[in-house]
Amino acid sequence: MGALDLARRAKHAAWVARRRMGQQVLSVRDRGYRAIDEARPPVWSRGNFGGSFLDRDVFPTRSAPSQSIPRRVFALWTGDNDLTPNRRAALAELRAQEDLVVVLVSPANLSEWLIRAHPPHPAYEHLSLVHRSDYLRCYLLHHHGGAYCDLKRGYGSIAACI
To answer: What is d(CA 46, CA 55) in angstroms, rounded to the nearest whole number?
Structure first.
């Protein structure tokens, strides 16, 4: 074994020792913080953060909605190609659930769901298919309400969730 090999091993051993020491210090420090939090749990109050965004009322009081939220689930397929067999089976699973209206929005019926006073952004056509789906998810839920599910299998019963 040469001198260079010994130097490399010593350097590695020193690095490992420093690393272990840092982890021990971190765990001691974490145990200390945990003990302090248990003895005196942190309390949030509006006055603690004067002038910061934490002081603002994020959820203003609103009156009850004038209509109930529709029990409708949107699913999206933004491509011009047919649904794959797995996606078709996932759509069938969703539609088999009772008390649930499942709407598949695709380029063929998208115009039925667009609001004339609120057309999609002009850049919509330049988005990738995945980003179109993200955009439409927000658009549809904002303007029409309901819920959204990706076309994936194995959700189980989602009717109770909405």
So the answer is: 5
For residue 18, count CB atoms less than 10 angstroms from its CB and return exposed for 0-12, middle for 13-18, buried for 19 or more.
exposed
Single-letter residue type at 130: V
Quick one: CA dihedral 25, 26, 30, 31, positive or negative?
negative
In the numeric block, which tokens belong to residue 90? 């996932």
CB 55 within 8 A of CB 83: no
d(CA 27, CA 125): 52
pLDDT at 74 over 80: yes
Mean pLDDT of 80-100: 90
Closest CA to 114 of 140, 132, 135, 77: 140
pTM for this entry: 0.58
Look at the chain and count its residues.
Answer: 162
Query: Is the pLDDT reported for residue 51 higher than 80?
Result: no
